[in-house]
Amino acid sequence: MSFLIYFLIIILVPIWAQFKVRSAYKKYSQVSNSSGMTGAEVARKILDENGLYNVHVEPVGGFLSDHYDPRSKVIRLSEDNYYGTSVAGAAVAAHEVGHAIQDKENYSFLRLRHSLVPVASLGSNASWILIMIGIIASIKPLLLLGIIFMAAAVVFQVVTLPVEFNASSRAMTQIVSVGAIRNDEERETRKVLNAAALTYVAAAAVAVLELVRLIMIYTGMNNDD
Are 40 and 94 in contact (CB under 8 A)? Predict the structure, then answer.
């Protein structure tokens, strides 16, 4: 019974988080911002205000595929946000610029996250192979190695949280200061950003729970000896 509850939690929590972000985005993507600025214009305005003239803004296909590429110094906004004038589009654009500002200022958690990318990638790809072999064949060293690899991926997800929250905080400050939204639109903008943050919180929470469960399995194998 406890395993069923655990299984439902790790399945339903991410689904609930995705529902919240899609629901908030859909609602406020239909609400025009007071300035009439497109997401691209919002991003460009904030970038210029912060002296980031070398960072480009370009459209990209896909739904909520918005991201900042620190290697190319490019902010890519999904087409609806790039060309649209919604509150949601302005919020997402400002959030991605928040990452560009972090990059400029050498924000510590952003640098830490970048340094963890190779380790986290290896951990995500290799951990479950080692873990499954370790559990099925009762090979404790393989299970432990898989847990260590998985822990690296979990650390990456946990470090992502302050990076995302900080980018959203910067977004709220910048989006008002450049006149992209009025003060009375802050509530709607914050709802979009908070909903997006839930997906990262959910992913980190599920990853930590799974890591704890695997550690318990490993300690249980030791106790059985």
Answer: no
